[in-house]
Structure formats: structure tokens, C-alpha cells
Write a structure and sequence with these properties.
The structure is a single chain. By secondary structure, the protein is of the alpha/beta class. It has one domain: TIM Barrel, CATH 3.20.20.480. Strand 19 and strand 20 form a beta hairpin. 47% of the residues are buried.
């Protein structure tokens, strides 16, 4: 048992309540724009005041909806085995979605992705010990545009057993994606009891839920599939420049999402998440690796935890264009802060260039970062006292502790054992091994992982069923 789990907080209790109260006031007096006709019907059935498509959600309705949201979500793998739990301070990582480019590890070029790139990416994700879930991480260009969302889910399920974070680009796609998920389960009830996928839904800042994203919330709720809010306030551009102002806007947008989901189906699961950023006043960009972006994420998550909801954030990514020093320290800082904050689902390993690019090299490196973070949050364990005195007495006889029973008993538990990605060799050994950089070692490790047999090969009957669904969709 850990003596204490390392943690970080940036908001006190008083300001959490102030943010929550103001967010409710914003929805009550300024309202939220709703485009989706089904959501409008739900709101009208509850006599929510509105001016055109701007709806004014009263605080009592928000409170009522918050009461019915599950406080935890368990995700299952493709075969129906319990895999990860989104609750309390459990921390899980996935690569994030949805990049439009891939960094080709062979040529070093950033280019548009193809389906073969996504297949390779998914196979590497399956082999990585510390990446807990996969995602429909890359938009590839060798399928028709109208099939790109559901086709990614098809390849993800076909090539990796881990639960998947996904989302729709077209309202018509949800039924196909749901059919694929049902193929992995015994029935609709089985899918509801053993969710395999999370559907991201992004409100449009400020204070707007679009037709597409709202439909995703409603469709997922009806099937009891978890929705993950990805609110994206851009501080200084589409949100207040103050960090606390952006956190408050994020809260208001997510509270509106809570109402939509719970009106669609009471008790439907959801995840309080986001991908905020600060606006870079010098470059005109949206830096995901900025420390202020990370601080907004931490504040957003603390509000979610204050409401006793599962949480999410985009962290452990970088704005660098290649897996260099910048990518390392931005991804490392993000992953570390996410771990200390106890974020239930952290999206970002592998991502570069403002979420636009996926890199297998960075993904493999980030796996090591995540492993270290997970070791840190295990904390220091009390194995029973005395802690050192008896062991030190034995040192007098042997003048070494490598062979001591306590070393043999505890070293695998106490130490994070890195893969060859991490260089802990002597300088001479490093030279003898070719003086390789971390990036080159990651490239070689990725090649080795791709040669390995699947950890859980897909059942051929299921694969055939997924193939048939995809063929019908492509027609």
C-alpha cells in the first residue's frame, strides 16, 4: 500500500464552486446554441426557454441531470474482457484523434496517411504495455471521404483488441459503427454492459453544440455507449484570455452536454473532457504543449472531479514537427501532470504539430514516458518496518546488497524497467551499439513490434463479419 499518492491541484474548493455557479449562470442567462432538431425537441418537451436556436438552461435542470450521470465507466476489450476503469484517480492513456498527417519513420517526411499506415499504427498500439486504449488516430485518404469515420473503426477493431476512442464525421455513420461494435458483442444489452468504444463529441466554442456532435451524443446515449466531451475553448480567440475564464467556458459547454445526454437517456454514461488551448499571440497558432494549455486542462479536470464524473484531457502531445527535444519535454510534462491530476483518459501519445500529425516513433517513446508516470503515481510503498536497519546490518557481512533477499524480492516491483528505447548504458556500450539516438532506437523498436504476433488475434468469424459490414458500407 502506498504511503501517499503524488497529486497536483491548481484550484481550491471555493473557486471550483464559483466556476460551477458562473457556468450555470451563463447557461441560464446567455444560453447555448443548439442546431440539432432532435435535441431541440427534447428541450422543447422540457419547456426550456429559448430565442431561436439559443436555449437558456435553468440551473435546477442541470442539477437534476448531473444526479443521473454514472460516476465511473468500465471499458472492455474486443473479446469482452474487462480492460480499464475510468473512475476516481485511475489514469489511462490513448493516442488521441484524429490526425490528418503521419510522420513517415522511413523517409522522415510528413505526408497524408493511408490505410496501411493506420493498420501499422494500430498494431504497434496493441503491443505497447502502457498505452491502455487505442483510437481512430489517423484520417487516411485511400477510402471515400464519406466512409472515413466508420472505416477507421473497422480497421481499429480488426487490428487491435484494446478498447477504442472514436467519433463520427457524418450523422449517417453512427449506425454502421454501432453495427460493428455489436458484432463484437452478444446483444445490445451486452454492448451496453460491456462498452468497447468511446465516442468523442466536440462542442463549438463558444457555447454551441452543432448538429453533428449533438446527434452523436443522442445516438450514443440511446445505446448506452459512453460519450466523451471534447470542449475546445481557445483562450484569447474563442474563449476568455484568462485561464480561469476558459475553464469556466469549458464548464458551461460541458454542462450543456450533460443535459443533452441525460435528456436523451437518463443514466447514459459520459466523460467530462476537452482539448483546450491558449492562442499564441506571436505565431497565431494553438499550442497544445504550452504550459498554460496544460493548466486549463488541469482546471477542467478538477471541475469534472468536483462533479464526480469520469474525466479526460488532451495531454502528452507536442507542437514540434518531429520527435525531438521539444517533443520529449512537452510530452513528458503533459503526461506527468496528467498522471498527478488523476485524469481517467489522457489522449495524446504519438501526436505532433498541434494534433495534426501522428508519429509511430513518438508513440513508442511516449509509451516509456507513460510507464514512468504510472510508476510515479504508484507512490512509495511501506513494505514493513524497519525500513533499512536490518538490511544495512547484512551489508557488513557481504559488502554488497545485489544478492540480498530484499533486493531479489522487491526490485521488479520497486523499479521501472525501461525498454531499449531508454539509454542507460555506459558510454562505451552506447558506442559499441552504434551511438544511436532515442529516435533511431524508437524506429527500430517499432519495426520489431510490427514483426510480433498479435497479443490477441481476432476471431476469424468476427473478422469476416466486420469485413462484410465494411463491404456493405463501401457500396
Amino acid at each position: 500500500m502506498s504511503i501517499i499518492r503524488p497529486k497536483i491541484k491548481i484550484l481550491d474548493e471555493e473557486h471550483k464552486q464559483k466556476i460551477l455557479d458562473e457556468a450555470k449562470m451563463i447557461l441560464d442567462t446567455q444560453g447555448v446554441f443548439i442546431e440539432n432538431h432532435e435535441a431541440i425537441d427534447l428541450f422543447n418537451q422540457h419547456d426550456i426557454n429559448h430565442e431561436g436556436s439559443r436555449y437558456f438552461i435553468p440551473p435546477d435542470l442541470i442539477n437534476k441531470c448531473l444526479e443521473t450521470v454514472p460516476s465511473e465507466i468500465t471499458l472492455y476489450d474486443r473479446e469482452g474482457n474487462e480492460h480499464i476503469s475510468l473512475k476516481e484517480d485511475n489514469v489511462n492513456f490513448d493516442p488521441g484523434s484524429a490526425a490528418i498527417f503521419i510522420l513517415d519513420e522511413e523517409t522522415g517526411d510528413i505526408r497524408e496517411g493511408m490505410s496501411k499506415d493506420f493498420i501499422r499504427f494500430s498494431k504497434v498500439v496493441e503491443q505497447l504495455q502502457y498505452i491502455d486504449a487505442q483510437s481512430t488516430a489517423l484520417i487516411y485518404q485511400d477510402v471515400p471521404k464519406e466512409t472515413q469515420d466508420w472505416h477507421r473503426l473497422y480497421l481499429a477493431l480488426s487490428n487491435c483488441y484494446k478498447p477504442v476512442v472514436t467519433g463520427t464525421f457524418r450523422k449517417e455513420s453512427f449506425s454502421i459503427m454501432r453495427e460493428m461494435l455489436l458484432a463484437c458483442r452478444l446483444s445490445e444489452d451486452d454492448l451496453a454492459r460491456k462498452p468497447l468504444a468511446i465516442f468523442d463529441a466536440c462542442p463549438s466554442p463558444p457555447l454551441k453544440w452543432s448538429d453533428l456532435t449533438t446527434q452523436s451524443l443522442i445516438d450514443a446515449a440511446k445505446s448506452m455507449i459512453p460519450s466523451e466531451f471534447v470542449s475546445m475553448p481557445l483562450a484569447g480567440a474563442s474563449a476568455p484570455i484568462t485561464l480561469i475564464g476558459s475553464i469556466t467556458q469549458h464548464c458551461a459547454e460541458c454542462l450543456a452536454g450533460v443535459v443533452i445526454v441525460q435528456l436523451a437517456k437518463q443514466g447514459a454514461p459520459l466523460i467530462w473532457g476537452g482539448s483546450p488551448a491558449v492562442f499564441d499571440m506571436k505565431q497565431g497558432t494553438t499550442p497544445m504543449g504550452a504550459i498554460e494549455t496544460m493548466m486549463i486542462n488541469l482546471g477542467d479536470v478538477e471541475i469534472g472531479k468536483y462533479l464526480n464524473l469520469p474525466t479526460h484531457a488532451y495531454m502528452s502531445l507536442s507542437d514540434s514537427k518531429i520527435p525531438d527535444c521539444q517533443a520529449g519535454f512537452e510530452a513528458g510534462m503533459g503526461a506527468l501532470l496528467a498522471g498527478l491530476a488523476g485524469i481517467n483518459m489522457v489522449s495524446g501519445p504519438g501526436m505532433l504539430d498541434f494534433e495534426s500529425t501522428q508519429s509511430i516513433e513518438k508513440l513508442v517513446i511516449d509509451n516509456e514516458i507513460v510507464g514512468m508516470v504510472k510508476r510515479l503515481i504508484q507512490g512509495i510503498e511501506d513494505h514493513g518496518s524497519p525500513f533499512a536497519s536490518d538490511i544495512l546490518k547484512d551489508y557488513e557481512d557481504s559488502e554488497e546488497l545485489l544478492s540480498h533477499p530484499s533486493t531479489l524480492k522487491y526490485f521488479r516491483k520497486e523499479l521501472f524497467i525501461p525498454s531499449p528505447i531508454i539509454d542507460r548504458m555506459t558510454r562505451d556500450s552506447w558506442k559499441q551499439m552504434g551511438s544511436k539516438s532515442t529516435r533511431k532506437r524508437a524506429r527500430e523498436e517499432a519495426a520489431n513490434l510490427l514483426k510480433k504476433r498479435s497479443l490477441k488475434p481476432i476471431n476469424q468469424i468476427l473478422l469476416k463479419e466486420l469485413d462484410n459490414i465494411a463491404k456493405r458500407g463501401l457500396k
